[in-house]
Structure formats: structure tokens, C-alpha cells
Amino acid sequence: MDSANKTTKNKEELKVRIIETANKLFSSKGIKAVHMDEIANELSISKRTLYELFTDKENLLLQCVIAHQQIKRIHLQKIAEQTMNPLELVLNIYKHGMNELPNVDIRFLEDIKRYPAIMELLAKQREEETERALHFYKKGVEKGVFRADIKFEMFHRLMNFGMDGYLKSNLLEEYPLTDIFDTLVKVYMRGICTTDGIAYLENFLNKN
Description:
Blueprint: H1 3-29, H2 36-43, H3 47-53, H4 57-82, H5 86-100, H6 106-111, H7 116-143, H8 152-168, H9 171-174, H10 177-189, H11 195-207
Helix pairs in contact: 1-2, 1-4, 4-5, 5-7, 7-8
């Protein structure tokens, strides 16, 4: 590997490390509370090096959001490759979302609203996630695990409101995440399942 290629490779590896570190700090402390100096110190690099790779904090935050969404897509793609059951796919989408809750501070959700371009990106990504979920719901109806008389777009929004609400409350301090997920799924998912779907749902909950 020549010198130029090695330098490029090192820069890309450093960018990945910076994004991972910044993402953890933003999520746990909020965006406003985290300064570029802190990120540089955490990685033992100079602030100049940091600014050479990311023009400012907003640019770094944007890259964090993009990287996080990419990881999420890969995770869900792997699940889709492992099962053809639409109910299991939908359950794993919500399970993945619930597993992320303890790592996100409410301040992060409040601070990110200050960045219109990032909020627009998140809104677009949520639309894409909704389209994927609606596709799985449709498949579930065809497979006989979901009822055909459900307005699934409204249902999906209700599920998202539920998860967002849990994050803004103190439930995570009072109850184990497994209990919250178990209750959320039982309350919301059972109502849209057929008899066959409920049997599969109970089996999924027992395993998870």
C-alpha cells in the first residue's frame, strides 16, 4: 500500500472512531453539553485534526445520524435474511428500537430539534421505516398472522408514539426494559394478530 492510500485509510478509520465516540457522547449527555474539545480529548487527538475531518459540530452530528441509520438498516436486513415471518420482522423492529432507549438521554431529543437539516433527514428516514413496516404488515395479512381489518399506518404511528413516550417518562428508571417491551407488545401487538399470530407472538415473547 502506497503512502497516499495508507493516509486515506488512516483518515477513514479515524473518522469512524470519531463518529462512534461522538455518537455515544451526544446520546448520553445531549448535543449542547458536548463540545468539540471534549470529543478530541476523548480520542487523544488535536482539535485541529478533528476540524480537518468535520467542519463543525453540526456536520459531525449529521454524520453520526447517517452512520447510526446505516447500522440500523444492516441490522434489520440481517433479521430479514434469517426469517420469512412478517410478525417476527415487525417484532424485531420494535425490539431494536426499545433496546436503544437506555442509551439515549432526553436532552439529545430536545437538542436535535435545533438542527432543521438533521430533523428533515430523520423525518425522511422515519417515512422509509414506516413504508418498510407497512410492507411487513401487508405480508403478515397475506400469511394469516395479522388481521385484515386494521389501519396499519395509524397502528405504526401509535407504536412509535408509545416508544417516544416511554423515553420521555421515568418508566426506564422504574421498570426493567424487558418488562416495558413485554407490556408494549402484549397491549399493542396482540390486538392486530390473528389466532395463529397470537400463538407465534407468545412463543416470541417466551424466547425474548
